[in-house]
Amino acid sequence: MELMVGDARVVTDDEGYLIDPGDWNESVAEALACSEGLVLNGDHWEVIRFVRAFFDEHQVIPDARFAIRHLADHGMGAKARARLFELFPYGYVKQVCKVAGMRRPRGWSTG
């Protein structure tokens, strides 16, 4: 499948995940978020940038628990888990990984 972002065509798999995470930029994230019914705000970007940085450093997608810990450490404290699923109501893999430009993780549920 293809996603048009401005004048650029970005290739996704059948579920909407990027085939090449290198195609990602913030405009692509906005388009992917829109396809998920999300309007991104500062808290969304905090999670997305964390996932991108973690992937760049470790070459693996972080588990949700790492994103939750990141949010907890950045001002959300004990409410971090609830906030993550408030921001991305259809799940970490389904929405966070997709909008952050990751390939669909193998063996993880999208639920």
TrEMBL record:
<comment type="function">
    <text>Part of a sulfur-relay system.</text>
</comment>
<keyword id="KW-0963">Cytoplasm</keyword>
<keyword id="KW-0808">Transferase</keyword>
<dbReference type="InterPro" id="IPR042072">
    <property type="entry name" value="DsrC-like_C"/>
</dbReference>
<dbReference type="GO" id="GO:0097163">
    <property type="term" value="F:sulfur carrier activity"/>
</dbReference>
<dbReference type="InterPro" id="IPR025526">
    <property type="entry name" value="DsrC-like_dom_sf"/>
</dbReference>
<dbReference type="GO" id="GO:0005737">
    <property type="term" value="C:cytoplasm"/>
</dbReference>
<protein>
    <recommendedName>
        <fullName>Sulfurtransferase</fullName>
        <ecNumber>2.8.1.-</ecNumber>
    </recommendedName>
</protein>
<dbReference type="Pfam" id="PF04358">
    <property type="entry name" value="DsrC"/>
</dbReference>
<dbReference type="InterPro" id="IPR043163">
    <property type="entry name" value="DsrC-like_N"/>
</dbReference>
<dbReference type="GO" id="GO:0016740">
    <property type="term" value="F:transferase activity"/>
</dbReference>
<dbReference type="GO" id="GO:0002143">
    <property type="term" value="P:tRNA wobble position uridine thiolation"/>
</dbReference>
<dbReference type="InterPro" id="IPR007453">
    <property type="entry name" value="DsrC/TusE"/>
</dbReference>
<comment type="similarity">
    <text>Belongs to the dsrC/tusE family.</text>
</comment>
